[in-house]
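Fig. S4 source data, part A: sequence.
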Amino acid sequence: MAEPLFKQLEKLQEEFRGHPPVAKWNPELCGDMDLVIQADGHWIHEGTEIKRQPLVKLFASILKREGRHYFLVTPVEKWRIRVEDVPFLVTQAAREGDQVLLTTNTGDVIPLDKSHPLILKPYGDPPQPIPYIKVRGDLEGRMSRDVYYQLIDWAEPRPPQEPPARLCQLWLKSNGEEFLLGEY
């Protein structure tokens, strides 16, 4: 008889002390789990929000994306879940010198750099360009409004580099790279 999923996850977390190698795990699909990661960053299981942050962090550590689908995986189980936008919400930003660090709602700390670029994508109704960042693997996080405003505060306004001409572009430097935050 297979161990319950939570027990498997506890063992994996102890073994890997961080993020297990989910990219290497390819078990057969077990089915769909009634778990939704809402666009606002809340994790909802069977209609009820998961309020225990350690459990959310545990599930986030075994999250995997294949194409447009998201899964919770272990070496022996794979459960499809639903994600309304992206699985992570960037809730904090810190800067020291030329380095910007971003923290997600699940505790991941990501440097804004070439491997974790900031990408503007349309979001909302009407769609507005909002910054997203690659968190790990194929998983992305969307900037919260507070973090976006913090990044704008740190950005450098410049004339546009190419037509069509806008009045100004906002550029943010981090780890030797430059990232476009928006135009106005």
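Fig. S4 source data, part B ends here. The chain has a mean pLDDT of 88.
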